[in-house]
C-alpha cells in the first residue's frame, strides 16, 4: 500500500461508471438502458417491449377474468400459455443469433478507442442486436427448464395478483390497484431475468455461475410467495394464513428492492444456509467443515428424527434418541480412518495448499485409539442404561419445585457455575474486560511459563471431567425425568426431545447453559403453570432458548462491531472522511432504523454489511458460517508458506489443549482466532464442533509486510503486550482491558515449536581481511573433512564385498565407472551457476547483473534454478545436458521478463560483431595447455596401508588441468595436522585398530591423493592467495563461482562440486561463529562443530529446495547469507527451532463476517479490485487489512491454508 488515509477513493472513476451501468440492470432484472455509448433507439424499445410482455399477457388474462369471460384459473392458464410461446420465440431467436454470429464475422478496422463493451448495431432484428438483448443459454436443459418455468410463473403470477383476489384481501379497490401495478413490476423483473437476459445480482455467493443458477433465484422466491397464497385458498378460512398472505402481498412489492440491496440469498447459499440452520437449531447438530459433510449429516439427522416419531414405545424412543444423539455427535469418519489403520495424512499442492492433520500425542484422550473406542462404548452404554433405568423406575414428577427432576436441576446449576468459573480463570481476561490476576505474565521462558501455569492446567483438567463426563449424564437424567417424555408421539415433542438428546453431547457447554435457564424458569414458576410454556415440553423449550441465546449473542456482537465502525470513523484521523460527520448524524437521527437493521440481521443470522466499511449498514444475505462456497484449504502459496506449514502441526497440538481446558473461551463453529509470533500471523477458524473433537482451519498471512499490514500488526502487538507482558501486580486503574473496543481480545499464550528468525548485519565480519584469510584455511579443513566423511558414507552404502573382488583392489576402469556415485544421506543439494568453457568462448563478455536488480533480496537469489543433483541425475540416465541452461561465469542471474529463465540462457550478445571482454581466440587450434588425463594416462596411486582403500577418492577427481608444480607451490596451505587428526577419528568410527590408524596417517600415497584433490578445488575456486572481497565470498556462497582455469573440470564432477560448495558454506559459517563466539580452541572442537553442522544445520540459501525441505523436516537450525542491495550490506539469517509462546486472541466473529460480506460485494459485484481502495486500507481497530488477507481466494490471499484439521480434544 502506497497511499493511505481518508482521501482514498471508494471506487475509481472507471469503476463508478461501470457500477452505475450495472446497478440499474440489477434493479430491473436485466434490461440494459444505460450503455455508456450511443445505440439506436430500437435497442431500448425492444428491451422495453420484452420487459412489459408478461404484464401485457397478465393484463389480458386479468381483463377477461374481470369481464367474467373466463374463470380465474382459465385466465391464468391463458396468460401462461402466451408467455410460454413468447419464451420459446425468444430462445429460438437467441439460438439463431448465436449461430449467425458464431459463423459470420464482420470485417473492418478495429477502433482502439472504443469501449470494450460497445456493439455495432446494424438492424433492429440483426444478429448483433438479438445477441445483445438475449444472449441465450449455455445448456439445452436450461433452455427447456427456463422456458417452461417462464410460462408457469406468468400464469401463477396472474392468478396471484388478480384484482378480485386483492380486493378480497384488502377490501379496497384503490389499494388493490396499487398492489396490482407494483406486483407486476416484480413479476416482469423476474421474467426478464429468467428468459431474456440475466442480471448480475448484488447477492453473489459463487465467483462464477457455471450452471446458470442465478436466473432461477427470483422466480423461486416468487413461487414461494404464491405457495403461501395457494395454501390460504385451499385450506380454508384460517386467520393466521390470511394475515400471512396479506403481509406477503405487501412484501412482494418490495422484492426488487430487496434483490437490489442483496438481502435475499442466491439459491446455492440459501440451500446450504437453510440446511445448516435446521441442523443446528432443529436437529441439535453443528455446522460442518464441508458441503458434502453438511448434506450427509443433515440427511442422517432427519432420518433419525423421523424414526423417533414412528417408534411406538416411549422407552424405545428414549433409548434410541440417547444412543443416536451420542453417535451423531462424534466424528464417525475418524472411526473409518482408525479401522483402515493409522491416522490419515492429507497431502496437497506442493505441501503448501494442503496441510497435514497433526499427529496427536499418545496420551489417553488425545487420539482415537483402542482405549478411546472402549471409552466411547462405555459412555454410550452408560448413557443408554441411565436413561432406560430412570425412565422405568423414576416416574416424572408433576411438582416443578420438588422431586428428582428439581434435584437434578440444582446439580446442573452447580455444574454450570463450576465449569464457567474454571473456564474464566484460564484466560488472560475475565469477561474480556478485567485482567486475570491468576494468569502468568511477562514470561519469556517457556519452561517457567509452564511451571507458573501448572495450577491452571489442573483447573482445566477438572473442568474437562465436569464438562465431558459428569454434565452429559446429569442432563440426560434431567431429560428422562421430564413429564413430556410420555407425549413424545407428537411431531414437535419428538423433534424437541431428539434434538435435546443430541445437543447434550454435541455441544455440552451450550446445552448446559440452555438447560440451566430452563431449570431456573421451572424453579421460579414452582407449581404455577405458565400458559403456552409448559405445553411445549422441555425439548422444545431448549430449542427456543438455544435459538434465542444465539440470536441475542449475534445481536450483541453486531452491535459492538457497528459501534466500532461508527466511533472509529471519527476518532481515527486516518479513517475520517469528509462525509464522516454527515454519516454519524444520519445514524444518530435514524437510530431506530439502525437498531432494526441490527435486529433483522441477527434474526436472519446474516452478516451485518458495512458498505465500503463505512458506517452505512445493510443486511447481507444469509450464508453458511464458513462464508465461502469453495472447499477449505485454498491458498496463494509462496516460499514463505513453508514456515506456516511447519508450525501448523505444533500449533494444532497447542490449540487442542487450549480448547479442552477452556483458555480460549467458549468454542462455537464460526469462531475466529488470531495468533502472533515475530513476523507471523496465524488465522484459525473453527469449522465444526462435536463431542471430544473440533475441526479447524489454519491460515497463514503474508510475511512481506506492506505499510497497511505493518500498521495493523503493530496494533496487534500492542494489544497482546498489554495483556501478556504487563507486570503481574497491577493497580485497579491498570487492571482493565484498554483495548476492549478492538476486534481482537487476547486469550492465552500457547507453547508452540516454531522457528525463531534472527537476522544480523555482517559488517566487520565478512569485510575483515583477517577473517578472509582465515576463511581459506577453514575451507580446506572443511573440504578435507567432507571428502573423508564422504568416503566413509560411500563405504557404508556400498559394502566392501560388493565393490571389491576376492581380497583384491578394484581396477582403475571400475573406479572410473563409479566416479559418479549416489549421494549419501545427509548430502545437501546446492545450486550453481557454473558453465562450460565452450559456452564462454562463444559468448560476449557480460558483467554481473547483481547491481541492476530491482528486488531487495536479502537472502540470496530467488529464481528457481536447476540443481546439481538434477543435472547429475540427467547425466546418469543418459540424457544430454542442455547448454542453454548454463550461465556465464562472473554473472549473477536475476529475475527477468522470461519468468525463471536466467539472462545467461538467452542468445549471446554480439554487439557490432565484436567479441568484447575476452582474449582473442584462434578457433582452429586447441587452447588447452594441459590435455585432460584419462584412465589410461592417469598414474595409479600406491597405498602403503591396505586400509587406505577405505578413503580412496574417485580417479576422475585427480584430473584437474593444473600443473603439478603449481599445486606444490601451495603445499604449505594443506592442513596436514588436521588431515592426520581426521584419519584417526574416522578410523575409530570405522572400528580400525590403533596400528592401522597409525599406518593410515603415515601413508604418503593417501596424503598425496587428498593433497592433490583439495588444492585443485582451492585453485578452481580462485582462492590461491585468499578470498579477495566480500562480494567474491557472497558469489561463491551462492554458487555463482567466477570463472577460473579449473572450474570446468570441477563442474564436470557434480558430486565433487557439491562437496566443494558445501565445504565453502561450512567454512563461512565457521567464520561467522568464530567472529561471534571466539576462535576454535582445538581440532576436537572444530571436528565437533562440523559434525554438528552436518547433523543439525542446513547452511545454504533461502531460495533452495533444500531450505524448504529442511524447514518441513524441522532441522534444528538453518543459516543463510544475504545481500541487501539498497544498503550495500551483507546479512546473516539464522532460523532456530525451539518452543516459543505464540499469543492467541479471539476475534469478533460478526466483525469478520461483516467485512467478508462487504469484500464479497465489492469484488464480485462492484468489481472494485483496486489495490489501494479504501476498504483494504489499514484500520487498527477493525484489522481490516488482515481480515481481507484471511478471506478465501480469489477474494483473499492467505499464503497458507490447511485442509480441515481434526483435533481430538476429549
TrEMBL record:
Pecanex C-terminal domain sequence ranges: 1032-1202
Alphabetical list of Pfam families matching this protein: Pecanex_C (PF05041)
Localization, UniProt: Membrane
Residue ranges, annotated region (Disordered): 799-824
Signal peptide: none
TM spans (from-to): 42-64, 76-98, 139-162, 168-187, 250-275, 295-328, 373-395, 407-435, 583-604
Polar residues: bias regions: 810-824
UniProt cross-references to InterPro entries, sorted A to Z: Pecanex, Pecanex_C
Similarity field: Belongs to the pecanex family.
Name of the protein this chain belongs to: Pecanex-like protein
Lineage: Eukaryota, Metazoa, Chordata, Craniata, Vertebrata
